Structure to design on (417 residues):
């Protein structure tokens, strides 16, 4: 196994320097440097890279213009395969592998942010993008928000950081209404994540229901992929739980019944949510209740074809995840949503998730064997019929659960009566 540096941006693209164990390599513009780089912004001895006991490290040698690793200023740091070192206008890529290894990403297929020099594959940077003015999305969102960043949209405030990118409150200039914009960061993405993002747009586009957040658009602009949805002024159930503890019997039944209706609507259109949880339930200030977070949704017509989920690969959020989602998300059907709905109701009533262990391994074991404390043991004042609804919804064997979200809603109406 060898470690070497390859220039991916600079005067001599693809030039490669091999690192030898125990022999430091000095990079700079001096002809006496171990690796001489023709870049006037480099110091004569700019930085040192060393391989020792299999660990590769970089040390900046008090250079005039500094050294960046993956867009962050570095005085001394460990280097990993794939890291990008920027000195002046020159960018090196660290690569581990056999000596005969070829460059895994062609220099011509990369665009470098003119602000932070992060590398973005050109296919993820959008059409019509050129190196001269390319600014990565992280820099755009990290700087002062610009009204012309997206066509026809003015970004206002960040709402949250999602799994694939930030979510912003914004204003649609033509419609003159507030909207939510969900981004996917190209720097975080790979083809699988991008496919997941686009699938969310496809799923959203089929769901128009009073208890589901409405999608207005899904598109790409200069490498920025984003979904536009209606903006709900209010908070998530997760935030409400953090502030109030439990939600009470009446409010819990109301919310879960509305979300059950939304899931039934999706189920009838062959869609399983797969990530029902308090953080994906929005409580509007106008009294509305909406389900969001369809990024992990499974469409039956695509099942087995998308390649997004492999056998044995779990999908969802652990505390609310059905046992079958842990063992094989491929086999997950609508009854996983029934389970998650029951786990969410448990949290609403108990003020805590059904599996409170801090160890992931312990939580997984408890989910697989159904080892959770019954609600009536936590709070004897809760109606027995309501506790029974939760127990059945969260049955380890999915054949013993309610067989549709609609059945959960019906059982809740009877429990409330």
């Amino acid at each position: 196994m060898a470690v070497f540096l390859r220039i991916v941006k600079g005067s001599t693209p693809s030039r490669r320097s091999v690192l030898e164990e125990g022999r430091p390599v000095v990079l700079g513009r001096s002809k006496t440097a171990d690796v001489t780089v023709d870049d006037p912004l480099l110091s004569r001895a700019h930085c040192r890279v060393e391989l020792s006991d299999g660990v590769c490290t970089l040390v900046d040698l008090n250079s005039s213009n500094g050294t960046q690793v993956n867009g962050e200023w570095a005085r001394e740091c460990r280097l990993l395969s794939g890291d990008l070192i920027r000195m002046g206008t020159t960018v090196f890529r660290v690569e581990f592998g056999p000596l005969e290894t070829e460059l895994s990403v062609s220099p011509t297929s990369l665009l470098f942010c003119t602000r932070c020099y992060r590398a973005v594959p050109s296919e993820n940077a959008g059409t019509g993008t050129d190196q001269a003015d390319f600014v990565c999305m992280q820099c755009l969102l990290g700087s002062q928000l610009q009204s012309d960043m997206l066509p026809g949209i003015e970004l206002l405030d960040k709402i949250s950081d999602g799994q694939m990118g930030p979510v912003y409150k914004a204003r649609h200039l033509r419609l003159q209404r507030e909207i939510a914009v969900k981004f996917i960061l190209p720097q975080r993405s790979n083809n699988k994540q991008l496919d997941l993002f686009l699938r969310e747009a496809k799923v959203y586009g089929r769901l128009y229901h009073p208890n589901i957040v409405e999608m207005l658009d899904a598109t790409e602009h200069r490498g920025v992929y984003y979904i536009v949805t209606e903006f709900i002024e209010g908070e998530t159930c997760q935030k409400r739980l953090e502030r109030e503890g439990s939600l009470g019997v009446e409010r819990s039944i109301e919310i879960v019944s509305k979300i059950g209706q939304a899931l039934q609507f999706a189920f009838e259109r062959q869609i399983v949510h797969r990530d029902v949880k308090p953080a994906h339930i929005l409580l509007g200030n106008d009294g509305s209740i909406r389900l969001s977070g369809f990024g992990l949704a499974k469409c039956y017509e695509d099942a087995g074809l998308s390649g997004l989920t492999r056998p044995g690969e779990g999908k969802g959020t652990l505390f609310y995840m059905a046992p079958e989602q842990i063992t094989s998300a491929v086999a997950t059907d609508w009854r996983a949503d029934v389970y998650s709905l029951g786990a969410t109701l448990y949290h609403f009533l108990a003020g805590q998730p059904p599996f409170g262990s801090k160890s992931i391994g312990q939580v997984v074991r408890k989910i697989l064997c159904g080892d959770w404390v019954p609600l009536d043991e936590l709070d004897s004042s809760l109606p027995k019929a309501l506790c029974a609804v939760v127990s059945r919804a969260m049955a380890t064997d999915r054949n013993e659960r309610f067989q549709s979200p609609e059945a959960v809603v019906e059982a809740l109406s009877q429990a409330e009566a």
